[in-house]
Design goal:
Order of helices and strands: HEEHH
Helix content: 40-55%
Strand order of the largest sheet: 1-2
Distance between the termini: 27 Å
Number of strands: 2
Largest sheet: 2 strands, antiparallel
Number of helices: 3
Low-confidence stretches: none
Oligomer: single chain
Structural class: mainly alpha
Shape: flat
Radius of gyration: 26 Å
Length: 130
Amino acid sequence: MSYNLSEVIDKYVALRDQKRTMVREHEEALKPIDDKLNKIETWLLGRMNEDGVENYKTEFGTAYKTIKTSVTMADRDMFKDFVFSSSVPLWNLVDFRASKKGVEEFLEDSEEIPPGLNITRVTTVNVRSK
């Protein structure tokens, strides 16, 4: 069976557009449920705070508090100075990893892989619609 290249790409674009539409519709359909869930979570948290408890156990399930932490960099140089100015560098405060962009630039210049790194390249196909 032979395929026409234009028809295959047309079909791909149509299916991708259909998927995007379905995802949007799904998100819209879930919004009222997510809103209700958020209201219940807010109510439960308020009640736990009022009662001074960490959880409620019932025959239907357990509601419990969790703390989610987000850490963002306010001043990169200040933080870097703090990490390295200690008598022992505070490596546990940083996420040390190779920069893909920097490694690619290094490879272009030296044609060598930096020691201690593995590099994997995978060729994929993308389709851009008109």
